[in-house]
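User: Please fill in residues for this 343-position structure.
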């Protein structure tokens, strides 16, 4: 199940401890902005950008997102070994935030040597152990939340070359069938694989090929969404989707008013899709659906990277292009937006 942890910014150490858990990995060569809400002091939007990309126009865009999150102030963390680069990025970000009437409450330079308050007249380097042994870090561990060691760890790893070769042969064999044969049993195979009754490289290769059919992909998507009945999923896989089926599914994921958290079905689909992309790394449909589920869980960074993989495989893949636009614009799934607005 998805979980958004609410944090009251008790100290800058708490914020630094929270950042890897919120974005999913320990950032490097990055600028991270953490919004602090005006009425409660709780942490709102957290945004990360590569340090090299911090230009005036980028800073302005981030500042608008932070202001739109009802932030009164923000914490800016600069992760780099280069203090001059950190100073440059902070100056650009501070100007943009002030332009949106958002105060920079704290600015911290984080390097392997430790962390430094960039607003202090005397630069005292404090140990990173303050962060890793903080109360909040312990709370995250108690909740069973663990960030990846780096950004690459957010995505599924690849299967062995032998397993990929087996999956590729299975996909090619399935693609050689006529279209009806390719799709007739696709939903049944998807459902069996979700339960673990069938698995292995051959199954993952077949599923990768099956997902190239839009009606099969859409049925797989609908099967993840709470409130979509199985008959609707079956009709979609057969090419007879009810007119409002896709709209209801999209609303359940993206709409602030009716959006729901991903449940067990989405979690099972995420695990199965991870196996498919591990065995068929060129599957644009599987990467797209995995990215959608990651975004639905509130992990925009993993979603962006997965959609980039989808577009590497097929730069014209329409669903990936649409989702990527939403992710790059900073949109959050409906349930996340609703929870933010009630805090």
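Assistant: Residues filled in for all 343 positions:
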């Amino acid at each position: 199940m998805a979980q958004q942890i609410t944090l009251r910014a008790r100290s800058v150490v708490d914020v630094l401890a929270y950042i890897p858990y919120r974005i999913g990995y320990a950032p490097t060569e990055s600028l991270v902005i953490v919004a602090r809400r005006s009425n409660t002091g709780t942490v709102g939007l957290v945004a990360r950008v590569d340090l090299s990309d911090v230009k005036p126009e980028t800073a302005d865009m981030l500042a608008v997102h932070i202001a739109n999150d009802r932030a009164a102030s923000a914490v800016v963390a600069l992760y780099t070994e280069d203090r001059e680069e950190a100073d440059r990025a902070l100056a650009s970000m501070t100007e943009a935030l002030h332009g949106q009437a958002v105060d920079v409450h704290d600015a911290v330079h984080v390097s392997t040597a430790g962390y430094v308050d960039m607003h202090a007249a005397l630069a005292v380097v404090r140990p990173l152990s303050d962060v890793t042994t903080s109360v909040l870090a312990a709370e995250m561990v108690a909740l069973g939340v663990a960030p990846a060691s780096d950004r690459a760890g957010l995505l599924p790893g690849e299967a062995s070359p032998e397993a990929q070769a087996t999956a590729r042969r299975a996909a090619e064999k399935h693609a050689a069938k006529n279209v009806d044969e390719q799709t007739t049993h696709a939903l049944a195979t998807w459902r069996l694989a979700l339960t673990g009754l069938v698995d292995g490289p051959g199954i993952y290769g077949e599923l990768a090929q099956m997902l190239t059919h839009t009606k099969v992909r859409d049925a797989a998507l609908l099967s993840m969404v709470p409130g979509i009945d199985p008959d609707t999923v079956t009709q979609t896989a057969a090419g007879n989707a009810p007119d409002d089926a896709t709209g209801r599914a999209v609303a359940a994921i993206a709409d602030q008013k009716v959006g729901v958290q991903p449940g067990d079905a989405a979690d099972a689909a995420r695990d199965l899709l991870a196996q498919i992309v591990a065995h068929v790394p060129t599957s644009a449909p599987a990467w797209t659906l995995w990215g959608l589920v990651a975004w639905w869980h509130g992990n925009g960074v993993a979603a962006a990277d997965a959609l980039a993989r989808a577009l590497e495989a097929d730069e014209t893949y329409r669903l990936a292009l649409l989702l990527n636009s939403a992710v790059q614009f900073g949109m959050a799934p409906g349930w996340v937006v609703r929870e933010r607005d009630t805090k």
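For context: The chain has two domains: 12-149, 161-329.
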